[in-house]
Design brief:
The complex is a heterodimer of chains A (187) and B (224). With 187 residues, chain A is α+β, with helices and mostly antiparallel strands. Chain A folds into 2 domains: 61 residues; 113 residues, Glutaredoxin (3-Layer(aba) Sandwich). Helix content of chain A is 57%, strand content 10%. Chain A contains 9 helices and 4 strands, in the order ααααβααβββααα. Chain A starts with a helix and ends with a helix. Chain B has 7 helices and 7 strands. In chain B, helix 2 packs antiparallel against helix 3. Classes of the chains: A alpha+beta (187), B alpha+beta (224). Chains A and B meet through helix 4 of A and strand 6 of B.
C-alpha cells in the first residue's frame, strides 16, 4: 500500500501530537482519501502513530460524519432537523430514497450514491435542505428534488449520469411514478 | 492544609484531596459505583453527589471529582442530596434490576419503588472497566463506541481484540454485570429480599441494635 505509506508520512509531519483533536483531523484525511475508514488503514495508523485502535474506533463511531462502511461516490444529504421537518423534509427524503433505491444511511448497489439524513445543517432558513456532493439546495419539495437531480447529474461526470439514467430506467420498469415522469420528460 | 466545613464540622485535609476522600477519611459514608481508589476519578455514576455552598445558593457536585477548597461548606446528607441520590438509584434500578450491587444500594438507601421503564441492561456506562483496562493493564482493549442512547462498551469492530490479555479485570470490577441478584420482582423491579429476612441475632438480643457493619450474623449492610 504505497498510498498508505505516503499518507502516513504526510500525517506524521502534520500531526505530531496524539490528542483527540489531531486524531479527528487524521481520520478526516483518511476518510477524504478512501471515502470511508477502512479497518486495515486504521490498524496500520494505530500501529504507526502509537495510538490505540480502540481510541480511533471510539472517535470514528462517535461522529456521524465518519463511516466505517464504504460510501458511494456521490453523497446526498437530506436534512431532517426541526425546521426542515416542519416544511416537509420527510417527503423529500422519501422521494430521493425512492429515486435512487437507497434507504437513508445506505449506499446504492453500484456504489455510486449514498443517502444520508442528518439532524440539522444549520441553514434552517432554506428548509427543507438537500446537499448533493457538498452543494446546498434549499426550499426543496418532492417534485423539485427530482428536477434538481437531473440538473446536478448533468454537472457530474458522464458516467454517473449514465448510471443515474440506468437507475431511473430500472425504477421505471419497476413502476415508480417519479421515474416514469422523469423518463417521460427525457423522451 | 485546607480547612473547610464538612456537615457543619471544621475539618482539614491536604491540598488536592477530593471531597469524597475527605468525607471517607472523616468516616462519612458516600455511596459510589464508578469510583475506585486505584483508578482515576470519573464522575459518571453521580451517586457521590454532595451539596456545596451557602444555603439558598447551594449546588450539587460530584464529590469524587471536586477538590476540597478553603472555606467550602459541604453537606453530604442534606435533604436535597438524599432526595436526588434516591432518584439516581431508582434510575439505576430501572436500568439494571438484576445487579446485586445496585439492589443492595436500593435497600440501603430505602428505595422501594421504580417509576421508570425497566431496561434490564447489564451496563451502567460507568467506565470502570475501561479505566481498569487502560490504567491498570495498559491494555486499551475496550472503550465506548457510538454516542447518546446507542453508547455502549465494546472492543474495536466488535471482535476479539489481540490487545486484550483476557485478564478478566473488566468483569471483576463491574458493578452491574458481575454479582447477580436473583430476586428483583417483576412488578416493582425492587428486590429488598435481603432486608426482608429477619436478622437472626435479634431473637437473642431483643431490641438491641446491631452496630456491626456488615453484621456478621445477618450479613446485612448498615441501614440508612
Amino acid at each position: 500500500m504505497a498510498l498508505l505509506e505516503k499518507q502516513m508520512q504526510v500525517d506524521q509531519e502534520n500531526f505530531t501530537t496524539r490528542n483527540g483533536q489531531s486524531l479527528v483531523a487524521l481520520l478526516q484525511e483518511v476518510q477524504e482519501q478512501y471515502n470511508y475508514l477502512p479497518e486495515e488503514v486504521l490498524r496500520e495508523l494505530a500501529c504507526a502513530r502509537g495510538l490505540s485502535l480502540m481510541e480511533m474506533y471510539s472517535v470514528a463511531t462517535f461522529y456521524k460524519s465518519f463511516s466505517l462502511q464504504p460510501r458511494g461516490r456521490h453523497k446526498i444529504v437530506t436534512c431532517t432537523g426541526t425546521a426542515c421537518h416542519v416544511r416537509g423534509s420527510e417527503k423529500v427524503t422519501e422521494e430521493v430514497s425512492r429515486m435512487l433505491g437507497v434507504k437513508p444511511g445506505g449506499t446504492s448497489e453500484d456504489g455510486e450514491y449514498s443517502l444520508e439524513s442528518v439532524n440539522c445543517l444549520g441553514a434552517c432558513a432554506l428548509a427543507p435542505l438537500v446537499v448533493v456532493d457538498g452543494e446546498y439546495h434549499g426550499n426543496m419539495t418532492a417534485a423539485r428534488v427530482a428536477a434538481l437531480f437531473r440538473e446536478q447529474l448533468k454537472k457530474m461526470k458522464g458516467q454517473s449520469a449514465e448510471s443515474f439514467d440506468k437507475v431511473i430506467e430500472e425504477k421505471a420498469i419497476a413502476g415508480c411514478s417519479c421515474a416514469r415522469l422523469l423518463a417521460g420528460e427525457k423522451n | 492544609m485546607i480547612n473547610f466545613m464538612l456537615n457543619g464540622l471544621d475539618v482539614a485535609v491536604e491540598k488536592g484531596t477530593t471531597l469524597l476522600e475527605a468525607a471517607r477519611f472523616y468516616g462519612i459514608e458516600i455511596p459510589t459505583l464508578c469510583h475506585n481508589e486505584g483508578l482515576s476519578p470519573y464522575g459518571a455514576c453521580r451517586l457521590c453527589l454532595v451539596e456545596i455552598g451557602e444555603p439558598g445558593k447551594s449546588r450539587l457536585v460530584t464529590s469524587c471529582t471536586y477538590p476540597a477548597q478553603e472555606g467550602l461548606q459541604v453537606r453530604t446528607h442534606s435533604e436535597r442530596v438524599v432526595k436526588t441520590r434516591k432518584v439516581i438509584i431508582e434510575l439505576y434500578l430501572a436500568t439494571c434490576p438484576s445487579s446485586k450491587t445496585i439492589q443492595d444500594l436500593a435497600s440501603r438507601y430505602h428505595v422501594t419503588r421504580v417509576r421508570f421503564r425497566r431496561k434490564h441492561d447489564d451496563c451502567i456506562l460507568c467506565g470502570l472497566c475501561i479505566r481498569y483496562c487502560n490504567e491498570q493493564m495498559q491494555g486499551k482493549a475496550i472503550g465506548f463506541v457510538n454516542r447518546g442512547v446507542e453508547r455502549r462498551i465494546t472492543t474495536p469492530f466488535n471482535r476479539k481484540f489481540e490487545e486484550c490479555r483476557l485478564c478478566g479485570g473488566c468483569i471483576y470490577i463491574c458493578p452491574a454485570c458481575q454479582a447477580r441478584c436473583q430476586g428483583p420482582q417483576e412488578g416493582s423491579g425492587v428486590c429488598n429480599a435481603c432486608l426482608n429476612l429477619s436478622p437472626p441475632c435479634l431473637d437473642h438480643f431483643g431490641d438491641a441494635m446491631c452496630y456491626m457493619d456488615p453484621c456478621v450474623a445477618c450479613e446485612q449492610g448498615r441501614k440508612g
